């Protein structure tokens, strides 16, 4: 992992990104200051310039993941300004299936769910995702309770995709056409 920055002026975000790479590759135990400093071509002093301790780095990393994996995804769907809530659902499903098929960070975080900071962020992310998808199903015409049920199923499907990506990637659709067919089948069952 050659992450040395040309300027050698690392930011807190650089450290958080490196922590996420380490977390994805080796779990929470892999988020250690000395190996990260070596990978970044930095000193431990650089780390302590930005963070009080390892726990502060873990918090920064999972907050960065939360922003990228939830808030930025939701913002991208909203920024598309699609009037049809079913089309917004379709776009969301396509985006998260693509994400689930290519990223293992969610699985690594789930394996660290006993860590207080990770647990709090995972819980908040789960709630936020369910709330957003519930709102989309409500906009598609479902009453609040059935909309929430469909949202819970939808988010559970995504978590299942991330698990499959980590454990049985060959079971996942490989082409764009296969992913579109999977999205169509999922939406057909959820919109019935």
From TrEMBL:
Residues 32-51 bind DNA. It comes from the Bacteria. The lineage of its organism: Bacteria, Bacillati, Actinomycetota, Actinomycetes, Glycomycetales. Pfam families: TetR_N. Residues 9-69 form the HTH tetR-type domain. This is TetR family transcriptional regulator. SUPFAM superfamilies: Homeodomain-like (SSF46689), Tetracyclin repressor-like, C-terminal domain (SSF48498). It comes from Glycomyces albidus. PANTHER family: TRANSCRIPTIONAL REGULATORY PROTEIN. GO terms for molecular function: DNA binding.
């Amino acid at each position: 992992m050659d992450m040395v920055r040309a300027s050698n002026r690392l930011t807190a975000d650089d450290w958080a990104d490196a922590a996420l790479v380490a977390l994805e590759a080796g779990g929470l135990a892999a988020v250690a200051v000395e190996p990260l400093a070596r990978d970044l071509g930095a000193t431990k002093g650089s780390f302590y310039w930005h963070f009080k301790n390892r726990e502060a780095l873990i918090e920064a990393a999972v907050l960065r993941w939360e922003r990228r994996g939830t808030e930025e995804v939701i913002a991208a769907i909203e920024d598309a300004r699609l009037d049809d809530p079913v089309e917004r659902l379709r776009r969301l499903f396509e985006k998260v299936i693509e994400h689930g098929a290519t990223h293992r960070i969610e699985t690594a975080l789930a394996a660290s769910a006993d860590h207080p900071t990770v647990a709090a962020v995972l819980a908040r992310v789960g709630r936020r995702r369910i709330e957003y998808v519930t709102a989309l199903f409500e906009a598609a015409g479902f009453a609040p309770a059935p909309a929430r049920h469909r949202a819970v199923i939808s988010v559970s499907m995504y978590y299942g995709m991330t698990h499959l990506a980590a454990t049985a990637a060959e079971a996942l659709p490989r082409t764009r056409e296969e992913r579109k067919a999977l999205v169509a089948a999922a939406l057909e069952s959820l919109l019935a």
